[in-house]
């Protein structure tokens, strides 16, 4: 793989330093960084070498950030943009899609999975949770909305953990490794939670979780280790 020039935009300087360490001895080379998108756009414009990839954590996911991101993409269509954040909520995902981002990943993703996802982006792939993105694009993100929060649906803590994993696009095997249980146990819990929330498949369950705030919880709150996909 050819070297990839990366520009980091994240308010957390410690996180930026961690990403630089992660990219050592890989094709990904950090060429610049900024704390916010507002600071990052002029820095990218002024850079002698255009980055190939920008990793961004949107501060609030508001219209101003979406507009700045859209302007950046319009001015530099060759740059790949990936959102790397702690929140998976409808507004941010929709804004990222509309602004032309090539990926939307969670910060609790495993290092190996992150590297593979970024390589896919550089090959022209999208690394959104694609099934969620399609529903948002079609304006159908409210199909599975419910007025009853997860706790009133009678979901167990383990079922909420599994929903959180579904939002990350994890397979049954990955979920089992996450939670240190067998795949057979995952299937039992999955069947139970699908029945409780009246969903017929994993995609509907993930959308239900997104619309009920489970995707907005930090990994620890959902009982999933922040260091594992």
TrEMBL record:
The keyword Aminoacyl-tRNA synthetase does not apply. CDD domains: LuxR_C_like, REC_NarL-like. One of its GO terms (molecular function) is DNA binding. Keywords: DNA-binding, Phosphoprotein. This is DNA-binding response regulator. GO terms for biological process: phosphorelay signal transduction system; regulation of DNA-templated transcription. It comes from the Bacteria. The modification 4-aspartylphosphate is found at residue 57. Residues 148-213 form the HTH luxR-type domain.
């Amino acid at each position: 793989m050819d070297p990839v020039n990366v520009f980091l935009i994240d308010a957390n300087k410690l996180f930026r330093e961690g990403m630089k360490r992660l990219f050592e001895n890989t094709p990904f080379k950090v060429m610049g960084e900024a704390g916010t998108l507002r600071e990052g756009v002029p820095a990218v414009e002024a850079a002698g070498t255009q980055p190939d990839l920008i990793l961004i954590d949107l501060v609030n996911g508001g219209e101003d950030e979406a507009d700045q991101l859209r302007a950046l993409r319009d001015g530099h269509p060759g740059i790949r943009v990936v959102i790397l954040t702690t929140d998976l909520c409808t507004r941010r995902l929709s804004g990222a899609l509309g602004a032309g981002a090539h990926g939307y990943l969670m910060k609790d993703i495993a290092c190996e999975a992150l590297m593979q996802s970024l390589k896919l982006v550089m090959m022209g792939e999208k690394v959104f949770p694609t099934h969620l993105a399609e529903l948002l694009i079609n304006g159908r993100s409210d199909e599975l909305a419910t007025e009853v929060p997860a706790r009133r649906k009678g979901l167990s803590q383990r079922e909420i953990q599994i929903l959180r994993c579904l939002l990350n696009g994890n397979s049954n095997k990955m979920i089992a490794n996450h939670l240190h249980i067998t795949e057979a146990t995952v299937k039992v819990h999955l069947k139970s939670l699908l029945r409780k929330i009246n969903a017929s498949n994993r995609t509907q369950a993930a959308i239900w979780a997104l619309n009920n705030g489970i995707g907005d919880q930090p990994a620890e709150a959902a009982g999933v280790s922040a260091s594992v996909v």
